[in-house]
């Protein structure tokens, strides 16, 4: 892991509060943006903002919400 530029106390506190409220405080340890995730060579980042369907979860390298991704996989599985 490389040294990550600190996002600021307000943004960090907000992301930590949202992650804790969802029951996953470890999400706050993920990079805060896609750019930082790519620089670190990771696969997930957590912004703390809801996706268009209202899920608050980490996003993958394509910017897709992981919950939406799992729902799409289940839909494809059930369609067969």
How would you explain this protein's 3D organization?
- It is a single chain.
- With about 80 residues, the chain is mostly helical.
- It has a domain at about 30-80.
- It has helices spanning about 10-20, 35-40, 65-80, and strands spanning about 45, 60.
- The protein has a two-stranded antiparallel sheet with strand order 1-2.
- The radius of gyration is 14 Å and the shape is globular.
- The relative contact order is 0.13.
- The mean pLDDT is about 90.
Which descriptors apply to this entry?
80 residues, mainly alpha, globular
Q: Which value, in Å, is the CA radius of gyration?
A: 14 Å
Shape: globular
Beta-strand share of residues: 5-15%
Distance between the termini: 41 Å
What pattern of helices and strands is seen along the backbone?
HHEEH
Q: Uncertain runs with pLDDT below 50, 5 residues or more?
A: none
What's the helical proportion of residues? Answer: 40-55%
Strand arrangement in the largest pleated sheet: 1-2
In terms of quaternary structure, the protein is single chain
Number of strands: 2
* Biggest beta-sheet profile: 2 strands, antiparallel
Average of pLDDT = 91
The class by helix and strand makeup works out as mainly alpha
Count of alpha and pi helical runs: 3
């Amino acid at each position: 892991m490389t040294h990550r530029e600190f996002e600021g106390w307000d943004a960090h506190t907000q992301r930590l509060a949202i992650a804790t409220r969802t029951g996953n405080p470890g999400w706050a340890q993920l990079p805060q943006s896609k750019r930082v995730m790519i620089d670190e060579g990771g696969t997930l980042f957590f912004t703390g903002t809801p996706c268009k369907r209202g899920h608050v979860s980490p996003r993958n390298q394509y910017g897709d919400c992981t919950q939406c991704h799992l729902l799409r996989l289940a839909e494809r599985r059930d369609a067969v």
